[in-house]
Amino acid sequence: MMDYSGILSDRVQSLAPSGIRKFFDLLESMKDGISLGVGEPDFVTPWHIRDAGIYSLEKGFTKYTSNAGLGVLRAEIAGYLHRRFDLRYDPQKQIMVTVGGSEGIDSAIRALLNPGEEAIIPVPSFVCYGPLVTMAGGVPVYVGTKRENEFRLTADELRAAITPKTKLLILPYPNNPTGAIMERKDLEAIAAVLEGTDIIVISDEIYAELTYGQRHVSIANIPGMYERTILINGFSKSHAMTGWRMGYACAPQPIIKQMLKIHQYGIMSAPTTSQYAAIEAMREGDADIELMRQEYDYRRKLLVDGLRKLGLDCFEPRGAFYVFPSIASTGLNSDEFCERFLLEEKVAVIPGTAFGAGGEGFVRMCYASSAENISEALKRLEVFINRL
Amino acid sequence: MEDVLRLLEKDARFTPQQLAAMTGKKADDIEETIKKCEAENVIIGYTALVDWDKVDPNAVTALIEVKIAPQRGAGFDRIAERIYQFEEVESLYLMSGAFDLAVVIAGRSIREISEFVFGRLAPIDGVTSTATHIILKKYKDKHRVFANQEEQQERLLFT
Questions:
Q1: Could you give the angle at the alpha carbon of A135 between the alpha carbons of A133 and A137, nearest 5°?
Q2: Are A210 and A267 members of one domain?
Q3: If both were cysteines, with which of A200, A203, A250, B75 could A171 make a disulfide (CB 3.0 to 4.6 Å apart)?
């Protein structure tokens, strides 16, 4: 018998597996189960975008593209970022098409970190940043954001986390799982801390199109930040294209040049069919975004209103498609709450602890689900809470 | 008001409380808006969208093109009125183009449809010709697709 644990990379083995899956296996086996757990749009990709992908297959466009992605697509992305977010990137030198936002995050981290260097990661946040930093030989430094600040990263929190070894700041806003956003004034405060350092920001803006009540502001728009920002975005959330695996990274040319090497050797090029679909999304997809955003907004308000009526403390989430209520008043911890809510009422939500320290006492509910599902889940939640 | 109407058009079962939560308005105001819309016939009614093919395999729906001679003073309206008064008529539209009225009727059989066309529609004064098209299959109505949609299997469960 081989001892694989002695053979496999220590670094990889040190990564914790996701503990969430057991919940979902349970949900799958249930009749009438409702999931507010999945973190992706419930919409199917708009037909005209799917059709563009199909048409590219009919034409036989099945070869690799250039490493950085189709020139036409990069030009469209540059146009889109200017049109929607007032950002300027040179499509030839500063944009790389990636396999989802995730690959962009991975290659950005690997392009920057030397062994032992630190990356500051606000938590609660999506689960990939820490493990990717570890895999790159770096050290994740988690900074707990707070409910009283609506889970925004503050200048003081950032300043306290910076050491001589700090190389990166990951900025995951609009935020999964809290729904927090960073407004211009918040970003300016962060910029003031970073000014004069060599810290690079990886700004994960995959939910940039999904904000409610105000447009998203990129940190790359704050004076002095453009040259130290790697912008990560993609089509998954804005255009309901998760399965196409289409993202992009934008950064100053010297950074993109190095990221492109990692991409070139690890990936070659992003899927060609998806790239053609993405061109259509950029050219004709703005109206789709608005339609879906409006729908999410209705559901967001429905869910927040319902939770508050049940007496759960819940700040107004202004981005992404998540609500992050406190369940402290129930007397249960996050894991207990989620397990019992699923077993007793067949509704799946995610414990805040899955998203790092500071998540205890909270659960994540995703409102990328029909109003009908949300209403039913709220009914069951009421029954559940009243029984406790 | 328009947001409430759009939401109700999507799902008439939304309660005033739900509509209030979704639009950020007061439930009382929503109720009032709806009552006003009903009174002014902006909201004409509420129905369920039924796929009758699953209930009665013999049920037939037909779209009938009707050409008419407009009448002095009343234009098309008077004849249209005479047509839409029939219970069987599901919908009726005045059209531009090659014909004047589009009549949609639902019947229990082809025979019932043909009896309607020859016995009731064609004899109306001013109706000059009809062309009956049988609807073979309903794919989509009111933004709803009738076929059972296949769900993608093995979705990633947690992101």
A1: 75
A2: yes
A3: A203
Amino acid at position A105, single letter: I
Is A188 touching B (CB cutoff 8 A)? no
Chain B contact set for A176 (CB, 8 A): 159
Whole-angstrom distance, CA of residue A245 vs CA of residue A174: 20
Please report, for the domain that includes residue A178, its CATH number. 3.40.640.10
In Å, how far from its chain's centre is CA B11?
15
Last residue of a domain, one of A284, A309, A331: A284
pLDDT in tens, B85-98: 999 999 999 999 99
In angstroms, what CA-CA distances link B157 with A23, A31, B22?
Answer: 10, 17, 27
Task: Verify that A301 and A280 share a domain, yes or no.
Answer: no
DSSP β-bridge partners for residue B62:
B105, B134
User: In terms of domains, do A68 and A211 share one?
Assistant: yes
Do residue A301 and residue B21 have CB atoms under 8 angstroms apart? yes
Are A157 and A200 members of one domain?
Answer: yes
Q: Minimal CA–CA distance to A96: which of A268, A216, A239, A224?
A: A268
Contact with chain A for residue B22, Cβ under 8 A: yes
Query: What is the predicted ipTM?
Result: 0.81
The burial of A333, by beta-carbon neighbours within 10 Å (0-12 exposed, 13-18 middle, 19 or more buried), is given as: middle
Task: Give me the residues paired with residue B107 across strands.
Answer: B60
Last residue of a domain, one of A284, A310, A326: A284
Q: Name the pTM for this structure.
A: 0.92
pLDDT at residue B108 greater than cutoff 90: no
Taking the Cβ of residue A3 and every Cβ of chain B, the question of whether any pair is shorter than 8 Å is answered with: no
Q: How many domains does chain A have?
A: 2
Q: Do A260 and A293 fall within a single domain?
A: no
Q: Are A152 and A252 members of one domain?
A: yes
Q: Which residues lie closer than 8 Å to A72 by C-beta, 6 or more apart?
A: A279
pLDDT, averaged in runs of 10, over chain A (388 residues): 92 81 72 88 96 98 97 98 98 98 98 98 96 97 96 98 98 98 98 97 98 97 98 98 98 98 97 98 97 97 96 95 96 94 94 92 96 96 95
Give the range of the structural domain holding residue A349, as residue numbers without chain letter.
4-45+287-387
